Amino acid sequence: RMSMHEASCLAGLSFNKAGVGIVHAMAHQLGGQFHVPHGLANSMLLPYVIGFNCSRNPAVAKKYARLSAKLGFAAHNSSEADKLAALIEAIVTLEHTLDCPMNLTAFGVDRSTSESKLDLMADRALEDMCYRFNPYPANHDDLVSLYKKVL
Predict the structure, then answer these.
(1) Distance from chain centroid for Cα 135
(2) Which of left, alpha, beta for 99 (phi over 0: left; psi -120 to 50: alpha)?
(3) Rounded to whole angstroms, how far apart are CA atoms 47 and 45?
(4) Is 4 inside a domain boundary?
(5) In this structure, are residues 125 and 22 in contact, taking their beta carbons and an 8 Å threshold?
(6) Please, which residues have CB within 8 angstroms of residue 18's CB and are 6 or more apart in sequence?
């Protein structure tokens, strides 16, 4: 319990310093609309948001590639694209290992219900205070596109 407490505290300190971006802004909406627990909502969105941010901001891609190599998911001499793919694959593998529902349908939300809320969730995510910390200024259509990946 002490280790979990310390890890939670360290996460909170890092969030305070770096911000959390659109993955959290979007996850807040999944929780608010469909009662998806926040950690699970983040895990559903994270692989797509990492890919989105990396494809639009080369500096972000470099940081994630470096992280992938440091965590041992890819060799240090691998290409940036291979490092990013390995990082996303590791995240998805962990989600499968933990038996996480990977989308709203698997969580139990009817697809037509979730589709009807796409615009509302995107609008609210853009207003969420976490949004402003994203390394790329995503717009409404970007967020709708990301949400569609987790229907």
Answers:
(1) 13
(2) left
(3) 6
(4) no
(5) yes
(6) 133
pLDDT tens for residues 78-136?
A: 999 999 999 999 999 999 999 999 999 999 999 999 999 999 999 999 999 999 999 99
Q: CA 68 to CA 48: how far, in whole Å?
A: 16
Assign residue 116 the CATH number of its domain.
1.20.1090.10
Tokens 């041992």 sit on residue: 72
Judging by beta carbons within 10 Å of its beta carbon (0-12, 13-18, 19+), is residue 85 exposed, middle or buried? middle
CA distance 84 to 74: 9
By the 10 Å C-beta count (0-12 exposed, 13-18 middle, 19+ buried), 149 is classed as middle
Model pLDDT for residues 43-84, shown as the tens digit of each residue:
999 999 999 999 999 999 999 999 999 999 999 999 999 999
Longest dimension (CA), the chain: 45
What's this model's pTM, rounded to 2 decimal places?
0.91
Number of H helices, E strands in the chain: 9, 0
- In total, how many domains does the chain have? 1
CA–CA gap between residue 6 and residue 30 (Å, rounded) = 27
Expressed as residue numbers, the domain containing 111 is 21-148
For residue 20, what are its two tokens?
A: 């959390």
